[in-house]
Design the sequence.
């Protein structure tokens, strides 16, 4: 009777589901077709819709036909293929990991492919497109394997993004170092990394198309097994599904799809994240879209609509000549970053709060010894940084310079080198103090100005001013940086505060905002000076190049104020870092105190960015190391963290200036290489 009663009901439900799926699919196909047609009619040449029709029917002038057939059609076809590949890759990776935030971007697949290509490019060997795809595939697969291994499948939506973002930052820092060290060998690689669907002919599409078809066929064949994984590993094994083999197969196929897209057009950001999420929204009208064999191809259609739609919007709002210089990937990254911020504010963080440092009680003697050792080390590092560089000096030269008796050559060297050393020292100290404050207020040991997007907002504000007003002074740049960081902080802390700062949502929102600011910086550079990519790379790599004593004054003043406030409110920092209830029981106005400390943290980060560019992970490493050395009391943590931060950035700046002199690497690249493994270690320890 039970079977008889339920069987009739199943038929109409299945029919409705199939009808809804068909309607959604047809609607998406029509949307993609319309966008493709519009995309063909857009461009720099005066070739409109009527000329396009004539070109496609063989009745156009040779010039118009060449524009349509050799330029616009390859661009449209590439956008279609890239969108389909990224959409399907994101859907496959999310299904197999049971994680709605899995995507080629968040799994560091794009960063791994970028790194692998750059590593091979510096050798000077020219590879054909298919071989380049193989190199990118190996790099992307290795990065995805590391991220999935560190985060753990099913261990929480946020942890995967944290691991992927940290690894991507480290790999990107090394890659940008290659670009700065080998500018001739890697010429054009930076522009390629922004993601552009512009093509010269159909060679790329014809070579990458079969890879996409093979990966799609593999995903369709594994569809039922992937659906079984959604029931849980034990249930899937009970149904005879080889869980491990299925996961490995689907991850490889997803990476293959992403690699094909990256090889063809460069990294097109966040399409693999947004497309599956939009398909889940469409599943309200058809539950059949949740099945892998249906959802993956539909996600491909949504991805194609996103890429072509971004290209259409770009050319609709910008003039033809300007639109050509703006990569499509910049537009999708901006849209995707907004999408990630919204998704982060809504997604449930199943990983819980990040692990806090263990409570350590250190003696006063230990604190004094650690402080003295760090102070001596910092003085030694500062002196060494002043003496060493592209030309070596002696202490006597410095003494003569201080007394105004040095020669012209020595004076020139020290006039340019001393401000750089001071900028590195003050920026490192400010970032360390900023990280200490924000970790105490949010009680989140993973919080850090660059990870939270605050440094990205400051960099955006400073870059906008520098590119639009080249003669802007140091105080103006600091003000612009503070404005950008303040706006970023309002978004990050505002969205994260409603569920408590302990949640990793704070970091996730910051990551989305950081990605958006990075894309906007690229857009500003392209629109104002498209041929000067070195300007963006230098600023984003955290360089102290060209700093003067005037540029150091804002950061010195803010750091002094910050130290005074931190010392005066050291007890409040201890209480705020404990929990929500203890400060209130003692009569403390928690909201006002937290707001003031966060504002100070933002100001410190902004002035540090204005003085030395974007330098990441210092605000993460220095407070952690300080607490490990002297305990959790902020009367001890603050001075030790400040000394450690100044020492770390000064050492990074010195290494960047001397190891490969006369070429130079930004301090931010060096600290990212150091900070990435430490960040990943914290994730592993708290898993």
Sequence:
């Amino acid at each position: 009777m039970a079977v008889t009663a339920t069987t009739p009901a199943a038929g109409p439900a299945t029919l409705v589901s199939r009808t809804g799926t068909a309607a959604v699919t047809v609607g998406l196909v029509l949307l993609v077709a319309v966008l493709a047609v519009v995309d063909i009619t857009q461009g720099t040449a005066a070739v409109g819709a009527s000329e396009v029709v004539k070109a496609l029917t063989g009745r156009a002038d040779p010039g118009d036909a060449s524009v349509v057939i050799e330029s616009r059609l390859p661009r449209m076809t590439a956008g279609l293929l890239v969108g389909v590949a990224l959409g399907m890759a994101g859907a496959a990776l999310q299904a197999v990991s049971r994680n709605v935030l899995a995507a080629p971007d968040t799994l560091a697949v794009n960063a791994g492919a970028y790194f692998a290509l750059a590593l091979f490019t510096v050798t000077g060997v020219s590879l054909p497109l298919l071989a380049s795809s193989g190199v990118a595939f190996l790099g992307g697969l290795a990065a995805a394997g590391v991220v999935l291994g560190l985060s753990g499948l099913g261990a929480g939506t946020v942890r995967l993004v944290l691991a992927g973002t940290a690894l991507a930052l480290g790999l990107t820092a090394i890659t940008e170092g290659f670009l700065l060290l080998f500018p001739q060998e890697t010429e054009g690689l930076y522009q390629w990394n922004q993601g552009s669907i512009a093509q010269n002919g159909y060679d790329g599409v014809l070579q990458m198309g079969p890879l996409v078809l093979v990966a799609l066929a593999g995903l369709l064949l594994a569809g039922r097994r992937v659906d079984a994984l959604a029931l849980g590993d034990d249930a899937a094994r009970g149904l005879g599904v080889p869980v491990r083999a299925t996961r490995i197969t689907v991850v490889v196929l997803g990476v293959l799809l992403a690699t094909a897209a990256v090889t063809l057009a460069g990294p097109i950001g966040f399409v693999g994240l947004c497309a599956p999420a939009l398909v889940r929204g469409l599943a309200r009208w058809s539950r059949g879209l949740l099945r892998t064999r249906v959802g993956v191809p539909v996600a491909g259609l949504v991805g194609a609509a996103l890429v072509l739609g971004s290209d259409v919007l770009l050319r609709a709002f910008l003039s033809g000549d300007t639109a050509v210089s703006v990569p499509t990937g910049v537009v999708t990254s901006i849209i995707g970053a907004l999408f990630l911020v919204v998704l982060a504010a809504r997604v449930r963080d199943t990983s819980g709060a990040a692990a806090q440092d263990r409570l350590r009680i250190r003696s006063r003697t230990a604190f004094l010894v650690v402080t003295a050792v760090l102070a001596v080390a910092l003085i030694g590092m500062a002196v060494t940084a002043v003496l060493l560089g592209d030309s070596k000096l002696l202490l006597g030269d410095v003494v003569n310079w201080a007394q105004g008796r040095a020669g012209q050559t020595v004076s020139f060297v020290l006039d340019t080198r001393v401000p750089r050393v001071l900028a590195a020292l003050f920026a490192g100290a400010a970032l360390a103090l900023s990280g200490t404050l924000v970790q105490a207020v949010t009680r989140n040991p993973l919080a850090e100005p660059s990870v939270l997007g605050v440094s990205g907002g400051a960099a955006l504000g400073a870059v906008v001013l520098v590119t639009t007003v080249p003669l802007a002074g140091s105080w103006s740049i600091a003000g612009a940086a503070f404005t950008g960081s303040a706006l970023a902080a309002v978004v990050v802390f505002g969205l994260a505060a409603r569920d408590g700062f302990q949640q990793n949502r704070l970091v996730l929102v910051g990551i989305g905002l950081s990605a958006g600011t990075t894309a906007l910086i690229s857009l500003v550079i392209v629109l104002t000076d498209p041929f000067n990519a070195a300007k963006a790379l230098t600023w984003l790599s955290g360089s102290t190049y060209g700093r003067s004593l005037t540029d150091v004054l804002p950061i010195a003043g803010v750091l002094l104020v910050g130290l005074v406030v931190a010392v005066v409110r050291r007890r409040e920092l201890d209480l705020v870092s404990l929990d929500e209830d203890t400060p209130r029981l003692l009569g403390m106005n928690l909201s006002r105190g937290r707001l003031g400390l966060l504002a100070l943290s933002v100001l410190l980060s902004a002035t540090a960015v204005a003085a030395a560019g974007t330098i990441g992970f210092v605000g993460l490493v220095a407070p952690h190391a300080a607490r490990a050395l002297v305990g959790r009391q902020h009367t001890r943590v603050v001075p030790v963290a400040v000394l450690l931060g100044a020492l770390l950035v000064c050492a990074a700046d010195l290494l960047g200036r001397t190891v490969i002199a006369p070429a130079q690497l930004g301090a931010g690249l060096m600290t990212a290489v150091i900070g990435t493994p430490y960040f990943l270690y914290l994730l592993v320890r708290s898993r």
Notes: Residues 459 and 609 are 6 Å apart (CA to CA). The longest helix spans residues 2-41. The chain has a mean pLDDT of 79.
